[in-house]
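Entry 14: structure prediction run for Ribulose-phosphate 3-epimerase. Input pasted below.
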Amino acid sequence: MTDRPSIIVAPSLLAADFSRLGEEIASIARASWLHLDVMDGHFVPNISFGPPVIAALRKHTDAKFDVHLMIDPVDPYLEATAKAGADHITVHVENAPHLHRSLQTIRALGCRPGVAICPATPAVALSEVMDLVDIILVMTVNPGFGGQSFLDSQLSKIRTLAEMIRESGRDIVLAVDGGIDPRTAPRVVDAGATMLVAGSAVFGKEDRDAAIRALEGPFVDHTT
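Run finished. Output tokens:
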């Protein structure tokens, strides 16, 4: 038995087969969240997809669309992302010069606001927005590509942010993205994470349901 909260596993669509996205989404029906990485080839060195694809996917699942905007500028695309069907919108502390306003705009659009933090950025950078965020996303790889190795150096940041969340008294999801698999998942959960973003650890497996269960580990009731 454990007194830890249940862990959310959000499969990352970036690792899916883009030629059959509808089928790929159907294969992860166990997941209540779907992580969608929007990349522009400018803020990060890759290009993925944008609001039209998000809107097209919305009819294929009831999962929460957890949209991670790795684009610069980000503010001009918040409304389009919300209208496309996002439930949560996460911006980076590094690409949102007016972060308060960006987070307030996201909430005003009817979405849960989140903020992501890159490996080289200290946890203290989020100290002034703890009252505005519903999700904090710790990048445990340098953003822009899937399949990278987990950066052990980020464990201390996860612990620091978990303590900042406790001190805030707010129910903030602490998510981790990058190199998450059955080996690293227990380590980040032990550090305080409550949500795991996983790409190849889910979409790279034949049995996606089993892959999600493996990441959920002992923190989720598997009898349901």
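Notes: The radius of gyration is 16 Å. Will compare against the previous run tomorrow.
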